[in-house]
Design brief:
This protein has one domain: Metal-dependent hydrolases (TIM Barrel). The chain is about 30% helix and about 25% strand. Strands 5-8-9-10-11-12-13-14 form an eight-stranded parallel β-sheet. Helix 4 runs parallel beside helix 5. It is globular, with a radius of gyration of 22 Å. The relative contact order is 0.15. Bound molecules: zinc ion. The site of zinc ion has 5 residues, from loops.
């Protein structure tokens, strides 16, 4: 019909073209809403969600779920791309980002762990090129710096190299922030080290979210850090020694502190089922956040690889040091955590996605995403649940399809 009109006159042509342009920018998705399983129609206009309407019960029932895109605030690399690689390129970051879209992640914070000052500065200046990149920039709102101001104690420092762990110094952080174009959004620090409290105060003043992690802080030190502005605990239950005092350890004060949200790695290996259930019960749905904490090996074929001059074994779920049979790092994308936390706690799909999208958006103050509601950026995933696992069928970023199975 439009083609017919187009031959009629120039005036009609103009009208028709504007109509076509609008069609291109407006899209409708019919699916089951993740939070209640009911069929909805989500209208996308430009890069935003413009309308969410319940579908009539006699409408053809859609076969897929729709949810807000997943948000991973702790991830070290993906698909063999290590965000800390000193030779990292923008193309490498694009490769990792595209692979994450396949897993339903529409927003993430590339995360750097403890390293020397020069390397961190270099890494942030490379990573900062991604921020304004037309293709992947919308997925990268900033960065997470995990360290270097953490506990040097064995067990608590985890895989962080002791020789690079140091005391907080505001000048150094300011220098890194400059290299990162002011986009270090989240920093993990230990509350008990010298200078932690004023450092946390400075971060809060500058709008940097402070998370407590890789530490052996006692109840008083944790309380002081929270008073100073810390609002989060990094991968609670990990970055902690195997042997701790049953009364006085860093876990109870963080679990019992209502002002702290927690991130957890629910890959089924970093925490057991009972730990996940207990943390979830203590913190509740609103203060539990899922992270992958994935290493760069995540997404690759299982097998042996060399990392940190050692042989590591990538299984479909996790990275191990095969000689000692101990964990070397996480390898499961955040959607695995969604399936696991439902299994471990009995929470609903809606609750699990809240912990992997809405909550991380809130803690980072990314008010334009993390929900399926009018005015939010159209970051969405369409997925099915097969054998208890999420299978991503389509990923939409700012209204554009960036992955389709
Ligand atoms: Zn860690």
């Amino acid at each position: 019909m439009r083609a017919k009109k187009m031959v009629l006159s120039g005036l009609v042509l103009l009208v028709v073209f504007s109509g076509v342009a609008e069609d291109k920018n407006t899209n409708t998705i019919d699916a089951l809403l993740y939070s209640n399983g009911k069929p909805v129609s989500v209208k996308i206009s430009g890069d935003k969600i413009s309308k969410v309407t319940a579908l009539k019960s006699n409408a053809k029932t859609p076969q897929m779920y729709v949810a807000p895109g997943l948000i991973d605030i702790q991830i070290n690399g993906y698909m063999g791309v290590d965000f800390a690689d000193q030779d990292l390129t923008l193309e490498g970051i694009r490769k990792a980002t595209r692979a994450l879209w396949k897993e339903g992640v529409t927003t993430y914070l590339p995360t750097l762990i403890t390293a020397d000052r020069k390397s961190l500065k270099n890494s942030f200046s490379i990573l900062s090129h991604a921020l304004a990149d037309a293709e992947i920039g919308p997925s990268i709102p900033g960065f997470h710096l995990e360290g270097p101001f953490i506990s040097p104690e064995k067990g608590f420092r985890g895989a962080h190299l002791e020789k690079y762990i140091r005391k907080p110094e505001w000048n150094e952080f300011a220098e890194l922030q400059l290299a990162a174009k002011n986009k270090i959004k989240l920093i993990t620090v230990a509350p008990e080290i010298d200078g932690a409290v004023p450092f946390i105060q400075n971060c809060s003043r500058e709008g940097v979210i402070v998370s407590l992690g890789h530490h052996n802080g006692n109840a008083e030190q944790i309380e002081k850090a929270v008073d100073a502005g810390a609002t989060l605990s990094t991968h609670l239950g990990n970055g902690c020694a195997n042997m701790i005092d049953r009364h006085n350890n860093p876990i109870w004060p963080q679990l019992s502190e209502d002002r702290l949200s927690v991130t957890i790695i629910a890959d089924g290996f970093h925490l057991n089922k009972q730990e996940v259930r207990t943390f979830y019960k203590a913190k509740g749905i609103d203060r539990t956040i899922l992270v992958s904490d994935a290493l760069d090996l995540a997404g690759l074929e299982p097998g042996e690889y060399t990392r940190w001059e050692r042989t590591v074994l990538l299984t479909p779920d996790v990275v191990k040091f095969p000689a000692e049979n101990v964990l070397a790092g996480a390898a499961a994308p955040i959607n695995t955590g969604i399936s696991n936390i439902m299994k471990f706690t009995g929470c609903s799909l809606g609750d699990a996605i809240q912990m992997a999208s809405t909550n991380p958006a809130k803690i980072l103050q990314l008010n334009d995403r993390g929900e399926i509601s009018p005015g939010k950026r159209a970051d969405m995933i369409l997925f099915t649940i097969e054998n208890g696992k999420m299978v991503i069928q389509k990923t939409i970023l700012g209204g554009k399809v960036v992955y389709e199975k």
